[in-house]
Every structure is written in structure tokens, then in C-alpha cells.
């Protein structure tokens, strides 16, 4: 007796452990659940976000799914620049639908969910599959994967339960797979267009006027939305350092987005945005972000009309035209103009200056979404919880994944559902010969709409739980072939059997004769039961000790009928999710759904691979027209002007063989520059390490160095310009010292290393001597380097210290 008590206590303890891990929110402190699919390590850090020292942690997907197999992309596509996140994936060769489950969410909250898919010929079939992705039971997108480029898709939706599921659906065009999956909780006031009956599917999100920032994402965007630069040769770009557009609670736009804009080159030319829709019934939501970034003299006017397919849009919503001058730019809230468009298959939004406008139209950013009706109704949540407890308790191996009943074409095998008040309920469950062992758990009694239950041909034992009396609609119960189960019906079902509303099939016809015969076997069963439990307990302890992260789905079989319902069944964080849109149309359009996600060498910061691109010597020769235009020579080597394929002017800094700057400094500069990202630091566009050739490719700074500018005999700088240059250089340095992690000390700040853009914006250059300073480590090199008299104040400070 006492040993049984101890055992019971031990079990309660174990159950308690399992519950506590199951109930804790899966959201990390930043509000994310990031999953690296197919990862065998517990987690991986993604540094692709940038330079602030903040990074996202991606967990292995093991605790989020129990189907599929781990795979790796083919070596051939494992380029050095590809982020490690995309090396692994999970593939789903079996089952038509396989689902990931995010648990412990908050019902009624908004979530942004993003899936990324990089095929990389992982299965050596050289055939990127096409398949569907669902959010719960509602169609979300059709994934058209590509061998070398990641496909990504995003949806913003309300959680209508405390869990959400993402399901991959095989549509007969290849095996579904997934590389990463992310969920981010959004503020309740964000995306007011989203409610429990409408969700938004991403089509495009562009930041304009930002060709030096090809991708803005986390940490600049706290929700890791990806803002791609919109490349247009015909638009003029401009940017400002000042804070424009106060923070907007509706879209929580990163400030960088406000600070750049594109405009047409004259008031005559309209600024247009076009895309092709999939069908006239598709409804789009277009958000235009417009905020003035230039200092406009009062004699000038920027005023324009906004039309969509010739219909006046802004003017019909608000009295137009759209006049930016009326707003004070320091207090102007971000203006996101929402437009819902439908009824066409091709759309053109046009921003056209009015006759009185002296300035061309301006646009900062665009977000384009498809609006989806959330039409699917998920299975009754009580049924969902119960069937999942049954599934995990008996380890039912029938490929059950996703919502049990909905959509009907994915109803789980071995069960049937019926709509009650429009809500699907499980009415028939046939687990005949499904390998069930152990006692019959009372959870079956929670499938309260059950009409037929077939448990024949298994190895169930013990009594029939009284909880089964809850099954008032039950007309058929079959437990034949379970040699060690009691055939004594609980009182309620017994009554139903007597009045002929229940057909009960069991091995031995007369339950009253059974009681006597089974006396000895019951004792035997109890002994076997205790032994089995003991073994299970040991096994569970082992499993728990061996695992760093206990599996939320571990379920302890109930010891016996008398211990009441297992605590797990009360606290089970549901396995099955719900969500939006069942209209199966697909997004094939303006969607810039492909992106190259890459990481640079060394420092681990990720950028799109067109930034920090690697050049060959012959590339450089072509770009610089055989090194024709030398614009300067430093200790490092010569600098040449060049032009990239897209027309961008660049400065190519070639390392001369006699350079005092060694390979180490060169690599330091590349590493430091890939890490930093600030308006007042010169932007590195690429580099070359081709045999002997070492070169850095920078953005071209038209006005040269500050030193030359100061000594120049031309028009002297005004005091205001000088002040601005000082201020901007200070901002660049402040960024290096405060925002970078670890902080960088430049060690050679001098007028020769401050470059000026065409509009005299100052940017700090030449990071070859800079040092990462880790305040936790005790040593900073005290050697005086760089140009005497030009040392960073910080460095001097530390020189005194050591
Ligand atoms: C993959 O993307 C590349 C580059 O955009 C494209 O040329 C190629 O056709 C795509 N392949 C497939 C199978 O879609
Ligand atoms: C969601 O928003 C749409 C459009 O504003 C509205 O018609 C609908 O009633 C809303 N649904 C809910 C459940 O609030
Ligand atoms: C959503 O459903 C309503 C009512 O059935 C319909 O009028 C509307 O056009 C649908 N919207 C979309 C985006 O499908
Ligand atoms: C359950 O399935 C088995 C075989 O899969 C079948 O023989 C049996 O008739 C089914 N039971 C019911 C009640 O339909
Ligand atoms: C079964 O139903 C009872 C009573 O309604 C409830 O307390 C229990 O949590 C349910 N169990 C499951 C697994 O849903």
C-alpha cells in the first residue's frame, strides 16, 4: 500500500513538471516564437538582423510538430553567404496535411506569422515543389519554392483560441517542406483592418528611397517585417536625418522607413505603383506612407492627387488634394492611407502633382496585402482537446495532424464529424485494431457528441470509466477483442442498453457472470499494472533527465480508474488550432515574395546578397573602366570611381602591394563595415579578394573628403554646413561607440576620413584601424595607432586607464 502511495506521489510530481512546461508561454521576451525547421540542435542564433547586438533565437521545431523528417539542402547550394537558418528544413513525405502548433498564445490577440522555404535540392530531385500553406483550417498561400531563392509568405490574423497551427498541404506537385517559421505577437491596436473575420496576407512591402538599405528588418523592425528597397531607376531618392513622422501605433513603422522617400523628377510625371491581381474578387488593402522629408520654403508647394485605376481615391475619402505642406513635419503622424481595391485584375495607383504644385509627388513606403475572409469554422474545442489527449495517450499512429474535422477534405482518418449549430463535432470514432494498450481513459467521455465508438481488436484493460455515461448520444460501442477489459457498463450506459438505445458489443455476452470469473485476473492485472507503471515511471524520469527541454506532449497514462481524471487532461495546452480564410484562390502577382537571405562572413550579420557582394578582379576592371579615374591615393592604396550595372556610382579602393595596411586590417575593415549600418558611416557595397587583388567597394561620395573641402579654394563651407558636418560625424561616432555591439573605436578620426556626399552629408570612412572594444575584457591595445593627434577621445581615455 505504501509503495503504491509513493508511486502515486512520484507520478503527481512528474505530471506537475510536464504541466508547468506545457503552460508556460512559448513566446520569447521579444514576443516571438522563431522556429528553425529540421534543426537537430536545441536552438540557433540568427544574427542577420544587424548591428545593435540584438538577435533572434530560433528553436528546433521538435516541440512544435510530431511528423515529417529532417533534411539538409544540397552542399552545392550551401553558399558561404547563406544564413545557417536555411541549411536545414523539415520535409513531409507522408500525410496530405502536416501541421506545426504554436501553443500558449492569447485568444483575441493579433499575430504575424511568416514561413520561409528554401528548396536547395535537398532531395536530389531537382524539382522545387509547389504546395499550399494553411493557417489552421484556412487557406493562406500557395508556396512556389525555388532551388536557390527563399520563398516567404506572411499572414496577420487574430488567434481565436490559445493556439495557432500552420499546416502544409500536399497538392500533388511535390513533397511539402519548410525552412523557418516565425510567429510574432502584435499590439492590439496594430493593423486595425484585421479582426476575427478578416486577415491580411502579405503581397509586398517596400521602403522607397533607400537603395543603401536593401532590407530593413529586425532589430530595426521590432516585428521582423521585411521591408525591401524598391529599386527604381526613374525615381529620385532623398533622405533626412531628422525624425519625421511620429511613431504610429497602427503600423509601428521603424523610423528608418519614414526618413527616406522617392519622388519623380518633375511635377509633370506621376509616381505610379502597379500590380496584377489574381481575380476580380480578390480584395486588396494598400497602405501608402507619405510624410514630407524635405525643408520646403514657404514659396514652394507639394500637392498631389492620388488615384487608383483612374478613380480619385484620396480625394474621395478625404477632401483633397493631398497637401503635405499643411503639416508640420516634426509632428506629422505617419500617414498610412488605406485603400481597399477590388473588381479588377490589374491595378495602378498614381500620385500626380496638381497644377499649382511646384514640387513632384513623394512616397515613403508601401504595404500591399490581400484581405481574406476568415470563413472556416474549427472543430468544437472540447472535442479537439479530448481527441488530442487520446491521440497522445495511446500514441495513435494515423498521421493525425491539424484540425480533426475541418476542412472536410482533411478530416482525420478513422473519425467522422457532423455540424451542430454550424460547429463540427466528432460523432464517429473507429479505433479498431489501432494498437491501443492500457486502461480506457475517461477522456473518451469528453467526446460528448459521439454516436459510435469502435475500440475492438485492441489490448485495453481495466474497467469501463463511469465518465462514459456523459456520452448521451452514443448508440454503438464495440470493445470486442480486448481480452483484459471489464465488460461492466457504467450505470448510464447500462440503462441505455436496457432500453435498447445502445448496441454494446463485448467478448463475453453476460456482464453479470463476468464479475465472478474475473476476480483473480483483476488482482493479476493490478500487479501487472503496478509493474508496468513502475517501468513507465523509470522511463519517463529517464526521458525527462535526458532532455533539456521536456516535450510538451509527453502524456502519462492514467494509473487506474480510481485516481480520477489525470491532471494533464485539465491543463493540456490544446494541440489544435484554428484560423482564417477558406477561399482557395492563390496569390500570384506583384508579390515580391522572394528574397535572398544571406549572412556575411565572419561577423555574422546578415544582409541581402546584393549588399556586400563579392567582386572578382575582372568585375572591378569593368566597373572602373580599367581603373581610369583615380580620385585619390592613401596609405592603403588608390581609389577609383566606378559604376555598377544598375548605374550606382561607387568608389573602389584597391589595396596596393606596398600598402602598410595588411591583410589583417583589410579583413578588419570588411568585418567592421558589414557590422555597422548608419547614415553617417560610409556604406560598404562589396569587396574583392581575388588572388592578390584586395579591394573595397564603397558608395561614392561626390564631394570628397572634408580635408580637401576645407583646403579647397572653391566656395567655402558656411558655418551652418560646418556645424552640420560636425554634428553628423559625431552621430556616426556615437553610433560606433554606443549602438554597436561590441563597440567600435575608430582610432583614426581626421578630416581626411570624413567624406561628404553630394548634399554635404558627412560619413565616416576608413575602418581599417578600428578595434572592437569589449568592455568586459580587460585589454584594449594601448599602442598608439592612426594619425597622431587624431585619436578617438575614448581610446585616449582607455590608454590612461591601462
Ligand atoms: C528560381 O528563381 C530564379 C531567379 O529568379 C529563376 O530564374 C528560376 O526560374 C526560378 N526557378 C523556379 C523553378 O521557379
Ligand atoms: C471585421 O471588419 C469588417 C470590415 O470592417 C466588418 O465588416 C466585420 O463585421 C468585422 N468582423 C468582426 C467579427 O468584427
Ligand atoms: C467576405 O465575405 C462577404 C460576405 O460573404 C463578401 O461580401 C465579401 O466580398 C468577402 N470578402 C472577401 C475578401 O472575400
Ligand atoms: C471500423 O473499422 C473496421 C476496419 O477498418 C471495420 O471493419 C469496422 O466495421 C469499423 N467499425 C464501424 C463501427 O464502422
Ligand atoms: C473533460 O470534461 C470535464 C468536465 O467537463 C473537464 O473538467 C475536463 O477538463 C475535460 N477533459 C478534457 C481532456 O477535455
TrEMBL record:
Keyword annotations from UniProtKB, A to Z: ATP-binding, Kinase, Leucine-rich repeat, Membrane, Nucleotide-binding, Repeat, Serine/threonine-protein kinase, Signal, Transferase, Transmembrane, Transmembrane helix
Protein's name in the database: non-specific serine/threonine protein kinase
SMART domains for this protein: S_TKc (SM00220)
InterPro entries attached to this UniProt entry: Kinase-like_dom_sf (IPR011009), Leu-rich_rpt (IPR001611), LRR_dom_sf (IPR032675), Malectin-like_Carb-bd_dom (IPR024788), Prot_kinase_dom (IPR000719), Protein_kinase_ATP_BS (IPR017441), Ser-Thr/Tyr_kinase_cat_dom (IPR001245), Ser/Thr_kinase_AS (IPR008271)
GO cellular component: plasma membrane
Enzyme class: transferase
Residue span, Protein kinase domain: 625-802
Residues where ATP binds: 653
Signal peptide (UniProt feature, chain positions): 1-25
Keyword Transferase included in the entry's annotation: yes
Transmembrane intervals: 522-546
E.C. designation(s): 2.7.11.1
Amino acid at each position: 500500500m505504501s509503495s503504491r502511495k509513493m508511486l502515486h506521489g512520484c507520478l503527481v510530481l512528474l505530471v506537475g513538471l510536464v504541466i508547468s512546461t506545457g503552460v508556460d508561454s512559448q513566446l520569447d521576451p521579444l514576443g516571438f516564437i522563431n522556429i528553425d525547421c529540421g534543426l537537430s540542435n536545441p536552438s540557433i542564433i540568427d544574427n542577420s538582423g544587424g548591428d545593435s547586438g540584438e538577435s533572434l533565437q530560433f528553436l528546433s521545431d521538435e516541440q512544435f510538430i510530431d511528423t515529417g523528417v529532417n533534411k539538409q539542402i544540397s552542399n552545392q547550394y550551401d553558399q558561404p553567404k547563406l544564413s545557417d537558418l536555411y541549411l536545414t528544413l523539415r520535409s513531409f513525405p507522408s500525410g496530405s496535411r502536416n501541421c506545426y502548433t504554436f501553443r500558449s498564445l492569447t485568444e483575441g490577440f493579433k499575430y504575424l506569422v511568416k514561413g520561409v522555404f528554401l528548396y536547395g535540392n535537398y532531395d536530389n530531385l531537382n524539382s522545387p515543389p509547389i504546395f499550399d500553406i494553411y493557417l489552421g483550417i484556412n487557406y493562406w498561400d500557395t508556396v512556389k519554392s525555388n532551388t536557390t531563392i527563399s520563398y516567404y509568405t506572411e499572414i496577420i490574423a487574430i488567434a481565436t483560441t490559445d493556439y495557432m497551427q500552420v499546416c502544409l498541404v500536399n497538392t500533388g506537385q511535390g513533397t511539402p517542406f519548410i525552412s523557418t517559421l516565425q510567429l510574432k505577437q502584435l499590439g492590439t491596436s496594430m493593423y486595425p483592418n484585421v479582426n476575427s473575420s478578416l486577415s491580411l496576407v502579405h503581397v509586398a512591402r517596400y521602403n522607397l528611397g533607400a537603395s543603401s538599405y536593401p532590407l530593413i528588418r529586425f532589430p530595426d523592425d521590432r516585428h521582423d517585417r521585411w521591408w525591401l528597397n524598391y529599386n527604381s531607376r526613374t525615381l529620385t531618392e532623398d533622405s533626412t536625418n531628422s525624425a519625421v513622422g511620429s511613431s504610429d501605433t497602427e503600423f509601428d513603422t521603424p523610423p528608418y522607413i519614414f526618413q527616406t522617400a522617392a519622388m519623380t523628377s518633375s511635377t509633370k510625371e506621376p509616381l505610379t505603383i502597379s500590380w496584377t491581381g489574381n481575380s476580380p474578387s480578390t480584395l486588396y488593402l494598400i497602405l501608402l506612407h507619405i510624410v514630407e522629408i524635405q525643408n520646403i520654403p514657404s514659396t514652394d508647394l507639394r500637392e498631389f492627387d492620388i488615384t487608383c485605376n483612374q478613380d480619385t481615391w484620396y480625394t474621395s475619402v478625404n477632401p483633397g488634394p493631398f497637401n503635405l505642406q499643411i503639416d508640420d513635419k516634426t509632428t506629422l503622424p505617419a500617414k498610412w492611407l488605406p485603400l481597399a481595391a477590388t473588381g479588377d485584375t490589374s491595378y495602378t495607383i498614381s500620385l500626380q502633382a496638381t497644377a499649382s504644385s511646384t514640387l513632384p509627388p513623394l512616397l515613403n513606403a508601401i504595404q500591399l496585402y490581400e484581405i481574406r475572409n476568415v470563413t472556416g469554422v474549427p472543430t468544437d474545442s472540447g472535442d479537439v482537446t479530448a481527441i488530442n489527449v487520446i491521440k497522445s495517450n495511446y500514441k495513435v499512429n494515423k498521421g493525425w495532424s491539424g484540425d480533426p474535422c475541418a476542412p472536410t477534405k482533411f478530416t482525420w482518418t478513422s473519425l467522422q464529424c457532423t455540424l451542430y449549430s454550424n460547429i463540427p463535432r466528432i460523432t464517429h470514432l473507429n479505433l479498431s485494431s489501432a494498437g491501443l494498450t492500457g486502461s480506457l481513459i475517461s477522456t473518451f467521455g469528453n467526446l460528448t457528441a459521439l454516436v459510435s465508438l469502435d475500440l475492438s481488436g485492441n489490448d485495453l484493460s481495466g474497467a469501463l470509466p463511469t465518465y462514459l455515461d456523459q456520452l448521451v448520444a452514443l448508440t454503438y460501442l464495440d470493445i470486442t477483442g480486448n481480452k483484459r477489459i471489464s465488460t461492466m457498463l457504467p450505470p448510464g450506459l447500462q440503462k441505455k442498453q436496457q432500453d435498447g438505445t445502445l448496441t454494446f458489443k463485448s467478448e463475453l455476452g453476460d456482464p453479470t457472470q463476468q464479475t465472478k470469473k474475473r476476480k483473480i485476473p483483476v488482482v493479476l492485472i493490478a500487479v501487472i499494472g503496478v509493474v508496468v507503471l513502475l517501468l513507465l515511471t523509470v522511463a519517463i524520469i529517464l526521458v525527462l533527465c535526458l532532455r533539456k527541454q521536456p516535450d510538451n506532449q509527453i502524456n502519462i497514462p492514467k494509473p487506474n480508474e480510481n485516481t480520477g481524471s489525470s491532471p494533464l487532461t485539465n491543463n493540456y495546452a490544446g494541440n489544435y488550432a484554428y484560423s482564417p480564410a477558406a477561399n482557395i484562390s492563390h496569390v500570384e502577382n506583384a508579390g515580391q515574395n522572394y528574397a535572398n537571405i544571406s549572412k556575411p562572413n565572419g561577423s555574422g550579420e546578415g544582409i541581402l546578397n546584393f549588399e556586400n557582394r563579392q567582386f572578382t578582379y575582372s568585375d572591378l576592371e569593368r566597373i572602373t573602366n580599367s581603373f581610369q579615374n583615380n580620385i585619390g591615393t592613401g596609405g592603403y592604396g588608390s581609389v577609383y570611381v566606378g559604376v555598377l550595372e544598375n548605374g550606382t556610382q561607387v568608389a573602389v579602393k584597391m589595396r596596393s602591394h606596398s600598402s602598410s595596411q595588411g591583410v589583417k586590417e583589410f579583413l578588419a575593415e570588411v568585418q567592421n563595415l558589414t557590422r555597422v549600418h548608419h547614415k553617417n558611416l560610409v556604406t560598404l557595397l562589396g569587396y574583392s579578394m581575388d588572388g592578390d587583388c584586395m579591394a573595397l567597394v564603397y558608395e561614392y561620395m561626390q564631394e570628397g573628403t572634408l580635408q580637401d573641402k576645407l583646403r579647397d579654394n572653391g566656395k567655402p563651407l558656411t558655418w551652418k554646413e560646418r556645424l552640420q558636418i560636425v554634428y553628423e560625424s559625431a552621430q556616426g561616432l556615437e553610433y560606433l561607440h554606443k549602438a554597436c555591439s561590441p563597440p567600435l573605436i575608430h582610432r583614426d578620426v581626421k578630416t581626411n576620413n570624413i567624406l561628404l556626399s553630394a548634399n554635404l552629408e558627412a560619413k565616416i570612412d576608413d575602418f581599417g584601424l578600428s578595434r572592437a572594444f569589449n568592455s568586459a575584457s580587460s585589454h584594449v591595445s594601448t599602442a598608439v595607432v592612426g594619425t597622431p593627434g587624431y585619436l578617438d577621445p575614448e581610446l585616449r581615455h582607455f590608454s590612461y586607464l591601462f
